[in-house]
Amino acid sequence: MNETDNSLERYLGGCIKDIRRSHGLTIADVAARSGISRGMLSRIENAQTATSLDTLSRLAQALGVSLASLFRGYDTRDGSAQLVRKNEGMEVVRRGTKRGHTYHLLAYDQGAKKTFEPFLISIDHDSETFPVFEHPGLEFIYMLEGEIEYRHGQNTYALKPGDALTFRGDIPHGPEVLTRCPIRFLSILMYPDGGDAQ
Questions:
Q1: What is the domain extent for residue 105?
Q2: How far separated are the first and last CA of the chain, in Å rounded?
Q3: Could you give the CA distance from residue 141 to residue 166 in angstroms, rounded to a whole number?
């Protein structure tokens, strides 16, 4: 068998061996419970032979697990999640950052074409002027702390903790009145077709 042909055998052998050891069982114990010879079980664990579903079913019973559980992790793709710990989001400069606004980017390194940008925005004190934003795609805001009146086009929305607002980004928008500081909210910008962030 070549490397590709026996990948399943190697996976199953390792899985059976791990379960057996985690239960504190010897090869002799499992062989006796399953009615399979010790030599055969050793060859299965070391991927030296292919085995039938019937044999695998008997081994699963002897180990006290389901047959399906032996295959559960096989051919599962590796993940590539990005974890950003509390207070470790990258601080970025955007319009408004000189007016008491702090932007922490919570995910980055998405490649040349960004599909979204999640920010934690903090406003610690009132300002005299407010930035107005326009960008492609959609924006989603979720209030965490404080109260704000947020303008989108002709409309303003009074937002309190727990409120969510979703709107088109190409219409002028931004804070109108900082009703109660400090204010913290999540702002997630979703760009069309992986377009460039602006």
A1: 90-194
A2: 54
A3: 6
